Amino acid sequence: MSMLSEFKAFAMRGNVIDLAVGVVIGGAFGKIVSSLVDQIIMPPIGWLTGGIDFSDKKWVLKPADASDPAHKVAEVAIQYGAFINTLIQFIIIAFAIFMVIKAINRLSRKQEEAPAAPPADVALLTEIRDLLKHRPG
Asked: How does it sit in the membrane (predicted)?
C-alpha cells in the first residue's frame, strides 16, 4: 500500500472526520461564547458595578516609556480584567456542556427504560400457547 493511499485511508476514517468536525464546531462555539460574555453579560455587570469594564482592568508593573524613540519600552502589566472575562467564559462553556450532557443522559435513560418488544418467534409461540389454552376439549 502506497503512503498516499495509506494516508487517505487514515484521514477518511470516521474518528478523524468526527474530530475535525468537533474542532471546527468548538471553535465556532468559542466565538459565540466570547461574544455572549463580552457584548451581553459583561455590560450589565459593568453597569451594576458602576461602569466597570473588566476587559480594561490591569495592574501596571512598569509603565511604557516612549521618551526615547530608539529605545521604546513596552508597558508591563498584569491584565486581571481579561482573566475575569476568560473565567466567566469558562463558566458559561462548562455550564452549557453540562446541560448538553444532562440532556443526552436523560434521553439515553428513557431509551433504556422503554421495554423492548419481544422477538417475533417469542410472540408467535405466546400466541400459540394462548390459543391452545382456550381450545375446547
From this structure: Multi-pass membrane protein
Q: How many CB atoms lie within 10 A of CB 42?
A: 19
In the block, cell 490591569 appears at 58
In whole angstroms, what is the distance from residue 135 CA to residue 22 CA? Answer: 62
Contacts with 126 (C-beta within 8 Å, 6 or more apart), sequence order: 118
> How long, in residues, is the chain?
137
What pLDDT, on the 0 to 100 scale, is given for residue 11?
75
- Residue of 42 and 76 predicted with greater confidence: 76
The DSSP letter of residue 39 is: I
Q: Region 32-36: what's the mean pLDDT?
A: 82
Q: Is the pTM of this model over 0.70?
A: no
Give all strands (DSSP E) within the chain, no chain letters. 59-62, 76-78
Backbone angles phi, psi at 59, to 5 degrees: -115, 110
Write the pLDDT tens digit of every residue in 50-82.
Answer: 877 777 889 999 998 888 788 888 889 999 988
Q: Do 80 and 57 touch, CB atoms closer than 8 A?
A: yes
Name the residue among 137, 49, 37 with its Cα closest to residue 90.
37
Amino acid identity, position 84: I
